[in-house]
């Protein structure tokens, strides 16, 4: 990263205009020369007076030099649209960021398959279990997990990917050096070390609400598929899903209870044509990837525990606390197993964390 990259990132122009400019020049230094000295005479004619004005207005050498010292001290890197390490998936769109700031290994975004896992900040236990389990299976099958590091579903997706040895990328709605939400500072540090964090916003940019719809196009743009776990009817995740559709991406939505506010958005996506998430075999079929069930050593033990759970359940709703008390299974694993049983259509989760057997329902 150099002072010219930083300058161009700070210019107040639309993404489409900036992308068009960067495509015309070898690098941002060449653009700077053309801006101030009309060296190439390819851009700065009478028609482009407004563009020229904004380019010149952004140049504050003293401020930019001070900022670049701070950025380098924080191990922040940058890549422009014309460079090889810039994510290839984003080169397909005319509104992609001309410059991306990043921490971590951005090269892995150009390797293999990327899957976005997104959802509501106001999550349910069902949504949490779904996000963690989906991220786990994706990660152990060597698929990268993309999300936005927001509270709730995004956080669970990132955490589960890391816990299972996967690669995860967080796309921020703030400057890359601004951690939001603050409670995710530890997660931010781990992703910076083991995964990748990216942002198109100038370092130091606060997490303004209008930044997040802008960054959502990067989450979907980087991904081969977008999986929506939970979303209310006015959720930002639906905005991302809409952008993904415009980009020609496949959308998968986790179905939920008709009584759950957090499932109204995902159920609506399914109604409008998204693939319903019904199991991993179907998900990996959409990705055109062979689904490998790993950790086979634990299979028999897990199956035995599932049977124990099923033996407890019947036609009368049983609360999660009662199941926990009678099985003595770690509560985190219990939720995961109950979610797997729901995927297998063995049990149903009712409102209030009550469970019944499917075979016992009418």
From TrEMBL:
Residues 79-285 form the Smf/DprA SLOG domain. InterPro entries: DprA, DprA_WH, DrpA_SLOG, WH-like_DNA-bd_sf. It comes from Clostridium tanneri. Pfam families: DNA_processg_A, WHD_DprA. It comes from the Bacteria. Residues 307-353 form the DprA winged helix domain. This is DNA-processing protein DprA. Belongs to the DprA/Smf family.
């Amino acid at each position: 990263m150099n002072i010219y990259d930083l300058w161009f990132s700070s210019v107040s122009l639309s993404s489409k205009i900036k992308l068009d400019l960067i495509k015309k020049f070898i690098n941002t230094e060449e653009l700077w020369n053309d801006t101030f000295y009309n060296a190439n005479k390819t851009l700065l004619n009478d028609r482009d007076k407004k563009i020229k004005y904004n380019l010149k207005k952004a140049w504050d050498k003293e401020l930019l030099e001070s900022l670049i010292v701070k950025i380098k001290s924080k191990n922040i890197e940058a890549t422009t649209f014309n460079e090889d390490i810039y994510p290839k998936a984003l080169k397909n769109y005319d509104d992609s960021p001309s410059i991306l700031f990043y921490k971590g290994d951005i090269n892995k975004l150009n390797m293999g398959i990327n899957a976005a896992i997104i959802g509501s900040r106001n999550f349910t236990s069902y949504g949490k279990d779904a996000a963690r389990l989906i991220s786990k299976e994706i990660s152990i099958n060597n698929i990268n997990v993309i999300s936005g590091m927001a509270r709730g579903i995004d956080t669970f997706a990132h955490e589960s990917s890391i816990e299972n040895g996967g690669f995860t990328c967080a796309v921020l709605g703030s400057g890359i050096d601004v951690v939001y939400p603050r409670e995710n500072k530890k997660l931010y540090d781990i992703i910076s070390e083991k995964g990748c964090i990216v942002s198109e916003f100038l370092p130091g940019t606060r997490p303004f609400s209008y930044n997040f719809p802008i960054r959502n196009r990067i989450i979907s743009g980087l991904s081969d598929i977008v999986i929506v776990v939970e979303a209310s009817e006015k959720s930002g995740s639906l905005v991302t899903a809409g952008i993904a559709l415009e980009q020609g991406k496949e959308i998968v939505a986790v179905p939920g209870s008709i009584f759950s506010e957090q499932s109204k958005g995902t159920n609506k996506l399914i109604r409008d044509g998204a693939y319903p998430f019904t199991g991993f075999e179907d998900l990996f079929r959409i990705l055109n990837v062979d689904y490998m069930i790993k950790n086979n050593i634990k299979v028999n033990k897990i199956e035995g525990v599932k049977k124990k759970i099923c033996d407890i359940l019947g036609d009368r709703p049983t609360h999660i606390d009662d199941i926990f008390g009678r099985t003595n299974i770690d509560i985190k694993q219990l939720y995961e197993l109950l979610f797997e049983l729901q995927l297998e259509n063995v049990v149903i989760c009712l409102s209030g964390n009550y469970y019944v057997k499917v075979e016992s329902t009418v």
